[in-house]
Amino acid sequence: MNISAELRRRFESALATLTDDPAEYAALVRPAQNTQFGDYQANCAMPLAKKLSDKPRDVAAKIVENLDVSDLCETPEIAGPGFINLKLRTDWLTEQVNAVTHDDRLGVKPVANPQTIVIDYSAPNVAKPMHVGHLRSSVIGAALYKILTFQGHKVISDNHIGDWGTQFGMIIYGYKNFLNPEAYKADAVTELARLYRLVNILSDYHENVNEKLPSAKQRLQEFEQQLADAEANSDPAEKSAKKKLKKLRAGVTSQEKAVQSLQQSIEKFEADPELKELADNHPDIARLARLETAKLHSGDEENRRLWDEFLPACLTALQKVYDRLGVSFDHTLGESFYDPMLGEVVEALEAKGLASESKGATCVFLDQFEAPFIVRKSDGAYNYATTDLATIQYRVNEFNADAMLYVVDSRQGDHFKMLFETARKWGHDKNFQHVNFGTVLGKDRRPFKTRAGDTVGLESLLDEAVNRAYQIVTENDKSKPNGPELDDATRKDVAEKVGIGGVKYADLHINRESDYVFDWDQMLATNGDTATYMQYSYARVNGIFSRGGFDRETIRNSNATIQLQEPAERELALALLKFGEAIDDAASELRPHLLTSYLFETANKYSTFYEQCSVLKSEGDVQQSRLLLCDLTCRVLQQGLALLGIETCERM
Ligand code: ARG
Predict the structure, then answer these.
(1) Is the CB of 162 under 6 A from ligand 1?
(2) How far is residue 498's CA from residue 646's CA, in Å, rounded to a whole number?
(3) CA of 531: how far to CAs of 110, 149, 201, 476, in Å?
(4) How far apart are the first and last CA of the chain?
(5) 8 Å CB contact between 44 and 85
(6) In 1-113, which ranges are continuous DSSP H helix?
(7) Phi-psi group of 227: left, alpha or beta (phi > 0 → left; psi -120 to 50 → alpha; rest → beta)
(8) Distance between CA atoms of 173 and 579, rounded to whole angstroms?
(9) Which residues are CB-neighbours of 632 under 8 A, at least 6 positions away?
(10) Which residue's CA is minimally distant from atom 6 of ligand 1?
(11) 600 and 534 Cβ atoms separated by less than 8 Å
(12) Is the CB of residue 388 below 6 angstroms from any atom belonging to ligand 1?
């Protein structure tokens, strides 16, 4: 059930005689901000009155006159400038909530037109350490997968891992030149990550010395020259000259800073004699690493053998993280899978007249974009864009996809705009969505790093979450009024769910497009909009049954019914009936935070109910009714959290 949608349908018919775009105005029916005036509110009379050059209250009256909601609402009221306030009938609410107690789907109807939706999420670049950005993609993607599946769509998840990129050339170069065989034998993935980092550092050093520093110095010189000229030739009293001088001085300062920071990183590098020696012995490392990639791609036997050797180890390490997170995929078709198809993709684009040569490269030119979408570089190599086009073709042909969602960092926005536009022109006119998300920041509001300055590896991060959760769970258990209740194994199990759940919820409860600050204390707080709070809420409601010696199933299957007498009971019932609405909203906007905020609100409604309506001290039908409300609260919280990939515990 989706009460908002039902009311909008009713409004749409009521508005049909007043305007030719009734749906637009019906969309202005929303849950009321202030429940004092009702449960829902329609704000359509004011804008419609403007369009009709009529008085808003008169238009509101006309709408109400046409409106047929008497089966679910009390008589609508017109308030203020023309708001229409709607209060649901308590007998209707009672009937609905009783129906939902016996519904496995908790009142959530499957969608009328199920679609085949491919979701592309996680997609780390293997053999590089997986970082928090990929965690974000994994968590948001997995939640959307579950939400859309629950709605009744056919959803296919595909982990488009980067297993064919330039990092392999770097690792192969590292392997051939810097391998520590013992370390590799003991833990291949860690050694490969070290090699990757080492080759990166050495290449960066040479780039800084040979390219970045000289060009920064040159730019500084240009600024200084321009400034000197301007100082000599202009009248500093004149306003525009003053402005120009100020701008040039700022340019000099910022260029000085750039030079300084490059010099500093060069000095820091050279302070390590071992590194310096390696750098001196490998002056051409960046080019040679690129060459290794090119050799791999063109079928060089040795490099292909190494790739075949590295990949399984990398995938096993990835799988460990996914198991821990409880994230899975229907397919893992990485970039390498599409390699054999890339030539044909470019040929097809050329044949359609979409791609053409420009400065040796093959490009698609799109009206809305200045930069071309390059599908074959001037050295003949295919790239990220080509692979993504092949992937779209495959998903259309093999999966029959109606929609394709890409849960990827906002910074790739332009890539996806160009990709979708090219795919449409190519003939794949599907529902493409870049489900973009912001950056994970540290408390200092800069991209999240460890103390050592490395990007944070995921495994250690999850370990830390669980360790911290264990402290919290233990403290909480020890402070219980009748002494601790959990043995150590239970505490550990709870800590795993609280720790991992905390990391996920923190990520999900923020509008995905915002950057989000990774803060342990906030993440695991037992109060506030956190997984910990939600999990404790669930366990507390569930605890009522064991404390009172009741069995949830038995009560649900008895002929007890819910009666809504107290305002807090009514409020809770209404919140529980809005589950479907929350799921629809989260799905249609592809924003899991709409579901977390619904669950948080519901947990709060439950709190008020629990304060105002005693459950265990009540008796007879009232008690049965309240127990049924508790049971439904448990089921909604548990199902809602499960859709977000967050587990609950019966006892905490
Ligand atoms: N491997 C890419 C990265 O880490 C993300 C891939 C996203 N999916 C895609 N089909 N392009 O940046």
Answers:
(1) yes
(2) 9
(3) 27, 22, 39, 15
(4) 32
(5) no
(6) 3-15, 22-26, 45-52, 56-66, 90-101
(7) alpha
(8) 54
(9) 97, 100, 101, 106, 562, 576
(10) 123
(11) yes
(12) yes
Q: Which residues sit opposite 83 in a β-bridge?
A: 79
Q: Check if 375 has its Cβ closer than 6 Å to any atom of ligand 1.
A: no
Q: Is the CB of 386 under 6 A from ligand 1?
A: no
- Compute how many other C-beta atoms are within 10 angstroms of the C-beta atom of residue 567: 13
Contact 419, 373 (CB under 8 A): yes
Catalogue the E-assigned strands of 149-207.
154-158
CA neighbor of 158 nearest in space, from 372, 277, 307, 332? 332
Residue 358: other Cβ atoms inside 10 A: 13
CA distance 224 to 508: 49
pLDDT mean values, one per 10 residues, the chain (652 residues): 94 93 94 89 93 92 95 95 95 97 95 97 86 90 98 98 93 97 93 92 96 96 93 84 90 95 96 96 96 93 96 92 95 96 96 94 94 93 95 98 97 97 96 95 80 66 94 94 94 96 96 92 92 95 95 94 96 97 97 98 96 95 97 98 97 91
Residue 295 confidence (pLDDT): 94
Side chain identity at residue 582, one-letter code: A
Amino acid at site 130? M
- Candidate from 132, 392, 395, 412 with most ligand 1 atoms within 8 A of CB, to mutate: 412
Q: Is the CB of 123 under 6 A from ligand 1?
A: yes
b/e map of 290-306 (b: 16 or more CB within 10 Å)? Answer: bbbbbbbbeebeebeeb
Nearest atom within ligand 1 for CA of residue 384: 11
Amino acid at 47: P
Q: Is 39 in the pocket of ligand 1 (CB under 6 A)?
A: no
> What residue's CA is closest to ligand 1, atom 7?
123
The answer to whether 458 touches 134, Cβ cutoff 8 Å, is: yes
Question: Nearest-CA neighbor of 142 among 585, 580, 511, 508?
Answer: 508
SS percent in the chain: helix, strand, coil, step 5:
60, 10, 30
pLDDT of 190 reads 87
In one-letter notation, the amino acid at residue 238 is E
